[in-house]
Amino acid sequence: MDLSNPSITIRFFVGAQVIATVLAVARNGELGAEAWDDFLVLTAFVQTVSLLGIVALKIIAAIPGKPGVITRTTIAFFSLLIVTVGVYEGLLLILYALDITAQRWPPDHMTTLIRVVIIAALIIAMVLRYMFVYQRAQSRSESQQQDRLQALQSRIRPHFLFNSMNSVASLIRSDPDLAEKALQDLADVFRVLLADARKMVPITAEGELARQYLDIEKLRLGERLQVKWTASNVPRSALIPSLTLQPLLENAVYHGIEPRFAGGTVDIQLWSDGDELKIMISNPVPEVVDANKARRGNRIAMENVRERLSRHFGGRATLQTIEQQGNYYVKISMPIVRG
């Protein structure tokens, strides 16, 4: 479990406070001044144990050599138990030093200490069990998400491969140099498609890949495919998820430009707005649209990019689509990450 995550730390402290509240209610039959004082003491006790327990767990997590799960769990259990006993004894010392209690060691000290150890052992066992289950579920979820992203990234429409190879084949005799360049571009596109989906790449590299993809499409669409690039104040060191542009451009070509008799222009705009990177891709919509085919294709492309953005930025990245005045627009907003 990632104890550096603020949400995990908050859960520890909230859980500790719930335990303090339950113990205070259970120990006091009537709600009054004594019950309130008892609640404050229990709160100070469990929150101190939580704070020191988190520190102890972080130290255990940093143990070199990566001991096994059973060894780490055993070390964590007894470490948290020692922390609990230490805080309890320290709290008694502080109360005595402040003249809140008349005796350094209360008459029922050993009995109370044993009860504290038993209760703490049960709570620690439940906490460690929760951490183990949470960590396993989190690892499984992350693994499934990465497999899903890798599958999305590795997916490529068969028509693109076949059409590209046919275009290259038609150029081998008429223009061997152009055919060779097209094959190199195609190899670069496939290299990225089969690469690690978790990586962030420079915006310049992503832009170059997008240009290579569009160059391949221009081989078969010719003058029907026009491309317009506009970049304004985009940091060259900015990083974006691999294959953010290509699926959207493929979507624009396949569902926008190709069905049109006269073709059209794919307009790509990139700009920065404060600490956010903005991307806008637009294309004309066909005069006659197969609604089912368009929705299905758009859904696949949008799902691909949305999952990619969510994996890297969570809710800080957005993807919006709109069809207006004969054009289809896709707008992406994401935090600027500098390499």
Topology at a glance:
Elements: H1 6-27, H2 33-61, H3 69-97, H4 109-154, H5 158-174, H6 176-193, E1 200-202, H7 203-221, E2 225-232, E3 238-241, H8 245-257, E4 264-273, E5 276-284, H9 291-313, E6 318-324, E7 327-335, E8 337-338
Parallel strand pairs: 2-4
Antiparallel strand pairs: 1-3, 3-8, 4-5, 5-7, 6-7
Protein model, in words:
The chain is of the alpha+beta class and 339 residues long. The chain folds into 2 domains: 6-143, no CATH class; 155-338, Heat Shock Protein 90, CATH 3.30.565.10. Helix content is 64%, strand content 15%. It is built from 9 helices and 8 strands. The chain has helices at residues 6-27, 33-61, 69-97, 109-154, 158-174, 176-193, 203-221, 245-257, 291-313, and strands at residues 200-202, 225-232, 238-241, 264-273, 276-284, 318-324, 327-335, 337-338. A 5-stranded mixed sheet has the order 2-4-5-7-6. A hairpin with a 2-residue loop joins strand 4 (264-273) and strand 5 (276-284). Helix 4 (109-154) crosses helix 9 and helix 8 (245-257) runs antiparallel to helix 9. The chain is elongated, with a radius of gyration of 31 Å. It starts with 5 loop residues before the first helix and ends with a strand. 22% of the residues are buried. The model has no long low-confidence stretch (mean pLDDT 81).
